UniProtKB/TrEMBL annotation:
Ranges for domain ABC transmembrane type-1: 97-289
InterPro entries referenced in this protein's UniProt entry, alphabetically: MetI-like (IPR000515), MetI-like_sf (IPR035906)
Organism: Pseudoduganella umbonata
A biological process from GO: transmembrane transport
Protein's UniProt name: Carbohydrate ABC transporter permease
Compartments (UniProt record): Cell membrane
Main location group: membrane
Length: 304
Protein backbone atom coordinates (compact mmCIF):
# COMPACT_ATOMS: atom_id res chain seq x y z
CA UNK A 1 0.00 0.00 0.00
CA UNK A 2 2.83 2.37 0.85
CA UNK A 3 4.49 1.72 -2.50
CA UNK A 4 1.22 2.47 -4.28
CA UNK A 5 0.90 5.80 -2.46
CA UNK A 6 4.48 6.76 -3.30
CA UNK A 7 3.96 5.96 -6.99
CA UNK A 8 0.76 7.99 -6.99
CA UNK A 9 2.42 11.14 -5.66
CA UNK A 10 5.58 10.72 -7.75
CA UNK A 11 5.81 13.47 -10.42
CA UNK A 12 5.72 12.36 -14.04
CA UNK A 13 9.05 12.12 -15.87
CA UNK A 14 10.15 15.35 -17.50
CA UNK A 15 9.71 15.53 -21.25
CA UNK A 16 12.89 16.01 -23.28
CA UNK A 17 13.49 19.64 -24.13
CA UNK A 18 13.65 20.27 -27.85
CA UNK A 19 16.26 22.77 -28.85
CA UNK A 20 14.99 25.33 -31.28
CA UNK A 21 16.97 25.60 -34.46
CA UNK A 22 18.16 29.09 -35.28
CA UNK A 23 16.03 30.80 -37.90
CA UNK A 24 19.02 31.87 -39.94
CA UNK A 25 21.75 29.34 -40.52
CA UNK A 26 24.65 29.81 -42.94
CA UNK A 27 23.08 27.29 -45.33
CA UNK A 28 19.68 29.00 -45.25
CA UNK A 29 21.26 32.42 -45.74
CA UNK A 30 23.13 31.08 -48.76
CA UNK A 31 19.92 29.67 -50.24
CA UNK A 32 18.09 32.98 -49.74
CA UNK A 33 20.94 34.91 -51.34
CA UNK A 34 20.98 32.58 -54.32
CA UNK A 35 17.19 32.80 -54.78
CA UNK A 36 17.23 36.59 -54.46
CA UNK A 37 20.05 36.87 -56.99
CA UNK A 38 18.27 34.56 -59.44
CA UNK A 39 15.02 36.51 -59.03
CA UNK A 40 16.78 39.83 -59.67
CA UNK A 41 18.54 38.37 -62.71
CA UNK A 42 15.17 37.67 -64.36
CA UNK A 43 12.99 40.41 -62.87
CA UNK A 44 15.22 43.44 -63.47
CA UNK A 45 15.16 43.11 -67.30
CA UNK A 46 11.39 42.54 -67.15
CA UNK A 47 10.99 45.65 -65.01
CA UNK A 48 13.05 47.73 -67.45
CA UNK A 49 10.97 46.46 -70.36
CA UNK A 50 7.68 47.24 -68.62
CA UNK A 51 8.56 50.77 -67.53
CA UNK A 52 10.16 51.57 -70.88
CA UNK A 53 7.11 50.35 -72.77
CA UNK A 54 4.87 52.93 -71.05
CA UNK A 55 7.26 55.89 -71.30
CA UNK A 56 7.13 58.51 -74.04
CA UNK A 57 10.32 58.91 -76.05
CA UNK A 58 11.06 62.25 -74.37
CA UNK A 59 11.53 60.48 -71.03
CA UNK A 60 13.52 57.63 -72.56
CA UNK A 61 16.02 60.07 -74.03
CA UNK A 62 16.87 61.24 -70.48
CA UNK A 63 18.69 57.95 -70.01
CA UNK A 64 17.37 56.82 -66.61
CA UNK A 65 16.09 53.37 -67.53
CA UNK A 66 15.13 52.42 -63.95
CA UNK A 67 12.99 55.50 -63.24
CA UNK A 68 9.23 55.10 -63.17
CA UNK A 69 7.39 56.93 -65.98
CA UNK A 70 6.34 60.47 -65.10
CA UNK A 71 3.65 60.52 -67.80
CA UNK A 72 2.74 56.88 -68.55
CA UNK A 73 1.12 56.15 -71.87
CA UNK A 74 -0.22 53.06 -73.67
CA UNK A 75 0.42 54.52 -77.12
CA UNK A 76 3.56 52.37 -77.64
CA UNK A 77 1.47 49.25 -77.02
CA UNK A 78 -1.11 50.33 -79.57
CA UNK A 79 1.59 51.08 -82.12
CA UNK A 80 3.33 47.76 -81.46
CA UNK A 81 0.08 45.84 -81.97
CA UNK A 82 -1.34 47.56 -85.03
CA UNK A 83 0.95 50.26 -86.44
CA UNK A 84 4.62 49.24 -86.18
CA UNK A 85 6.44 48.43 -89.41
CA UNK A 86 7.40 44.75 -89.76
CA UNK A 87 8.94 45.20 -93.21
CA UNK A 88 7.13 46.79 -96.12
CA UNK A 89 3.85 46.75 -94.20
CA UNK A 90 3.10 48.82 -91.09
CA UNK A 91 0.28 46.85 -89.53
CA UNK A 92 1.90 45.98 -86.22
CA UNK A 93 2.61 42.61 -84.75
CA UNK A 94 -0.98 41.34 -84.62
CA UNK A 95 -0.61 39.52 -87.95
CA UNK A 96 2.35 37.60 -86.59
CA UNK A 97 0.33 36.72 -83.49
CA UNK A 98 -2.37 34.97 -85.50
CA UNK A 99 0.27 33.32 -87.68
CA UNK A 100 1.91 31.94 -84.54
CA UNK A 101 -1.45 30.64 -83.33
CA UNK A 102 -2.08 28.88 -86.65
CA UNK A 103 1.39 27.33 -86.51
CA UNK A 104 1.44 26.39 -82.83
CA UNK A 105 -1.97 24.77 -82.35
CA UNK A 106 -1.75 22.03 -85.03
CA UNK A 107 1.97 21.48 -84.38
CA UNK A 108 1.39 20.88 -80.67
CA UNK A 109 -1.62 18.61 -81.19
CA UNK A 110 0.07 16.48 -83.85
CA UNK A 111 3.40 16.14 -82.05
CA UNK A 112 1.72 15.16 -78.76
CA UNK A 113 -0.59 12.68 -80.49
CA UNK A 114 2.24 10.99 -82.41
CA UNK A 115 4.56 11.05 -79.39
CA UNK A 116 1.88 9.43 -77.21
CA UNK A 117 1.28 6.64 -79.72
CA UNK A 118 5.03 6.06 -80.17
CA UNK A 119 5.67 6.00 -76.43
CA UNK A 120 2.74 3.64 -75.86
CA UNK A 121 3.88 1.24 -78.58
CA UNK A 122 7.51 1.27 -77.43
CA UNK A 123 6.52 0.69 -73.77
CA UNK A 124 3.91 -2.06 -74.02
CA UNK A 125 3.77 -3.62 -77.48
CA UNK A 126 7.52 -3.53 -78.24
CA UNK A 127 7.51 -4.34 -81.96
CA UNK A 128 10.54 -5.90 -83.60
CA UNK A 129 13.33 -3.36 -83.74
CA UNK A 130 11.72 -1.14 -81.09
CA UNK A 131 15.02 -0.46 -79.32
CA UNK A 132 16.73 0.46 -82.59
CA UNK A 133 13.86 2.78 -83.51
CA UNK A 134 14.02 4.46 -80.12
CA UNK A 135 17.78 4.89 -80.46
CA UNK A 136 17.32 6.56 -83.86
CA UNK A 137 14.75 8.94 -82.38
CA UNK A 138 17.10 9.86 -79.55
CA UNK A 139 19.96 10.48 -81.96
CA UNK A 140 17.67 12.80 -83.87
CA UNK A 141 17.02 14.76 -80.69
CA UNK A 142 20.71 15.64 -80.39
CA UNK A 143 21.39 16.57 -84.02
CA UNK A 144 21.61 20.38 -84.37
CA UNK A 145 18.63 21.76 -86.23
CA UNK A 146 20.86 23.82 -88.51
CA UNK A 147 22.28 20.60 -90.00
CA UNK A 148 18.80 19.52 -91.11
CA UNK A 149 17.69 22.82 -92.64
CA UNK A 150 18.91 22.24 -96.19
CA UNK A 151 17.66 18.62 -96.49
CA UNK A 152 14.25 19.70 -95.15
CA UNK A 153 14.10 22.63 -97.57
CA UNK A 154 14.77 20.31 -100.51
CA UNK A 155 12.31 17.68 -99.26
CA UNK A 156 9.48 20.16 -98.71
CA UNK A 157 10.18 21.87 -102.02
CA UNK A 158 9.94 18.50 -103.78
CA UNK A 159 6.40 17.95 -102.43
CA UNK A 160 5.43 21.62 -102.90
CA UNK A 161 5.06 22.37 -99.18
CA UNK A 162 7.95 24.78 -98.77
CA UNK A 163 6.97 28.28 -97.56
CA UNK A 164 3.51 27.11 -96.56
CA UNK A 165 1.57 26.65 -93.34
CA UNK A 166 1.42 22.82 -93.63
CA UNK A 167 5.16 22.80 -94.31
CA UNK A 168 6.15 24.67 -91.14
CA UNK A 169 3.73 22.53 -89.11
CA UNK A 170 5.36 19.34 -90.44
CA UNK A 171 8.81 20.70 -89.58
CA UNK A 172 7.82 21.46 -85.98
CA UNK A 173 6.24 18.01 -85.62
CA UNK A 174 9.45 16.38 -86.90
CA UNK A 175 11.66 18.33 -84.52
CA UNK A 176 9.36 17.67 -81.57
CA UNK A 177 8.93 13.94 -82.18
CA UNK A 178 12.06 12.66 -80.31
CA UNK A 179 11.36 14.56 -77.09
CA UNK A 180 7.64 13.77 -77.13
CA UNK A 181 8.37 10.07 -77.68
CA UNK A 182 10.88 10.07 -74.83
CA UNK A 183 8.43 11.76 -72.44
CA UNK A 184 5.54 9.41 -73.15
CA UNK A 185 7.70 6.27 -73.28
CA UNK A 186 9.19 6.98 -69.87
CA UNK A 187 5.79 7.83 -68.43
CA UNK A 188 4.13 4.68 -69.72
CA UNK A 189 7.12 2.59 -68.63
CA UNK A 190 6.45 3.71 -65.03
CA UNK A 191 2.87 2.37 -65.12
CA UNK A 192 2.17 -1.16 -63.80
CA UNK A 193 2.43 -3.79 -66.51
CA UNK A 194 -0.45 -5.66 -64.86
CA UNK A 195 -2.92 -3.06 -66.14
CA UNK A 196 -1.88 -3.70 -69.72
CA UNK A 197 -1.88 -7.48 -69.28
CA UNK A 198 -5.36 -7.42 -67.74
CA UNK A 199 -6.64 -5.33 -70.65
CA UNK A 200 -5.12 -7.79 -73.11
CA UNK A 201 -6.79 -10.72 -71.34
CA UNK A 202 -10.13 -8.89 -71.58
CA UNK A 203 -9.70 -8.74 -75.35
CA UNK A 204 -8.47 -5.18 -75.73
CA UNK A 205 -6.61 -4.32 -78.91
CA UNK A 206 -3.93 -1.74 -79.63
CA UNK A 207 -6.19 1.28 -80.09
CA UNK A 208 -8.85 0.30 -77.55
CA UNK A 209 -6.29 -0.06 -74.75
CA UNK A 210 -4.69 3.22 -75.78
CA UNK A 211 -7.86 5.32 -75.88
CA UNK A 212 -9.77 3.70 -73.01
CA UNK A 213 -6.97 2.90 -70.57
CA UNK A 214 -3.69 4.68 -71.27
CA UNK A 215 -4.87 8.03 -72.55
CA UNK A 216 -7.15 8.81 -69.55
CA UNK A 217 -4.16 8.22 -67.25
CA UNK A 218 -1.88 10.45 -69.34
CA UNK A 219 -3.15 13.87 -68.21
CA UNK A 220 0.02 14.79 -66.24
CA UNK A 221 2.42 13.98 -69.06
CA UNK A 222 0.14 15.59 -71.66
CA UNK A 223 0.25 18.84 -69.67
CA UNK A 224 4.05 18.68 -69.47
CA UNK A 225 4.34 17.92 -73.19
CA UNK A 226 1.93 20.73 -74.12
CA UNK A 227 3.83 23.30 -72.07
CA UNK A 228 7.15 22.25 -73.59
CA UNK A 229 5.87 22.22 -77.17
CA UNK A 230 3.92 25.48 -76.96
CA UNK A 231 6.94 27.24 -75.49
CA UNK A 232 9.40 25.82 -78.02
CA UNK A 233 7.22 26.43 -81.08
CA UNK A 234 5.98 29.88 -80.04
CA UNK A 235 9.50 31.09 -79.26
CA UNK A 236 11.00 29.61 -82.43
CA UNK A 237 12.64 32.03 -84.83
CA UNK A 238 14.89 30.07 -87.19
CA UNK A 239 12.39 27.49 -88.45
CA UNK A 240 9.69 30.10 -88.89
CA UNK A 241 12.04 32.33 -90.85
CA UNK A 242 13.16 29.52 -93.16
CA UNK A 243 10.00 27.44 -93.68
CA UNK A 244 6.94 29.59 -92.97
CA UNK A 245 7.06 31.86 -96.01
CA UNK A 246 6.25 35.56 -96.18
CA UNK A 247 2.51 34.99 -95.64
CA UNK A 248 2.92 32.93 -92.45
CA UNK A 249 5.77 34.63 -90.60
CA UNK A 250 5.42 33.97 -86.85
CA UNK A 251 5.43 36.64 -84.20
CA UNK A 252 9.13 36.23 -83.38
CA UNK A 253 10.19 36.96 -86.95
CA UNK A 254 8.04 40.07 -87.12
CA UNK A 255 9.42 41.19 -83.75
CA UNK A 256 12.93 40.92 -85.19
CA UNK A 257 11.86 43.07 -88.15
CA UNK A 258 10.45 45.73 -85.80
CA UNK A 259 13.50 45.89 -83.55
CA UNK A 260 16.12 45.82 -86.32
CA UNK A 261 14.50 48.37 -88.61
CA UNK A 262 16.94 51.02 -89.80
CA UNK A 263 14.46 53.62 -91.06
CA UNK A 264 13.42 56.61 -88.97
CA UNK A 265 13.87 57.06 -85.22
CA UNK A 266 14.34 53.95 -83.13
CA UNK A 267 11.23 53.63 -80.96
CA UNK A 268 12.49 51.89 -77.85
CA UNK A 269 9.11 52.01 -76.13
CA UNK A 270 7.43 50.35 -79.12
CA UNK A 271 10.21 47.73 -79.26
CA UNK A 272 9.74 46.88 -75.59
CA UNK A 273 5.96 46.69 -75.94
CA UNK A 274 6.28 44.40 -78.96
CA UNK A 275 8.73 42.17 -77.07
CA UNK A 276 6.37 41.81 -74.12
CA UNK A 277 3.44 41.08 -76.44
CA UNK A 278 5.45 38.35 -78.12
CA UNK A 279 6.33 36.69 -74.81
CA UNK A 280 2.87 36.95 -73.23
CA UNK A 281 1.65 33.52 -74.35
CA UNK A 282 4.55 31.49 -72.83
CA UNK A 283 4.47 33.65 -69.68
CA UNK A 284 0.72 33.18 -69.28
CA UNK A 285 1.06 29.46 -69.94
CA UNK A 286 3.61 29.02 -67.18
CA UNK A 287 1.69 31.32 -64.83
CA UNK A 288 -1.60 29.44 -65.11
CA UNK A 289 -0.30 25.89 -65.54
CA UNK A 290 3.00 25.90 -63.63
CA UNK A 291 1.48 23.82 -60.83
CA UNK A 292 0.30 21.24 -63.35
CA UNK A 293 3.79 21.20 -64.83
CA UNK A 294 5.40 20.40 -61.46
CA UNK A 295 2.70 17.82 -60.73
CA UNK A 296 3.29 16.15 -64.08
CA UNK A 297 7.03 15.91 -63.49
CA UNK A 298 6.50 14.53 -59.98
CA UNK A 299 4.11 11.88 -61.28
CA UNK A 300 6.82 10.35 -63.45
CA UNK A 301 6.72 12.31 -66.69
CA UNK A 302 10.51 12.47 -66.93
CA UNK A 303 11.41 9.25 -65.14
CA UNK A 304 12.92 6.32 -66.90
Amino acid sequence: MKRDMESAVRPPPALPVRLRRPLLTPGRIGIYLFLATAALFFLVPLYVMLVTSVKPMAEIRLGNIFALPAAPTLEPWRNAWQAACTGLECEGIRGGFWNSVRITVPSVLLSIALGAVNGYALSFWRPRGANALFAVLMIGAFIPGQVLLYPLVRALAAVELYSSLPGIVIVHVIFGMPMMTLLFRNYYASLPQELFKAARIDGGGFWRIFFELMLPMSTPVIVVAAIMQVTNIWNDFLLGLVFAGSDNLPMTVQLNNIINTTTGERQYNVNMAATILTSLVPLALYFFSGRWFVRGIASGAVKG
